[in-house]
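Progress against Task 2.4 (sequence-to-structure conversion) is shown through the following example record, which the project officer requested during the mid-term review.
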Amino acid sequence: MKAKEREIIQKLKETSQKVVPAGGQVWLYGSRARGDAHEGSDWDILILLNKPRLVASDYGIAYPFRELGWGIGEEINPTLYAKQQWNSWTYLPFYKNVERDKIVLL
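Structure tokens generated for the chain above:
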């Protein structure tokens, strides 16, 4: 992993600690987590909130991650789920891929 990638991961961790409520989790997944990203690849992050279901106000948690990306010239794509909802999708290929490749940020 290159120094720039390590620096971005550190910034993602810091943002996670600031904005994600207690009990939440943040994972990096996709090509950046697998190590097969190319120039211009985006940064896919999954944000899990410790609650049975999301409400409209929860989606504001994603904005600081987008803002971080704009500030550093990278595309950061946050996706939010409630943990209970996420854990009910163990049969989905997306779930399996994320679980296999994830890097825990928070």
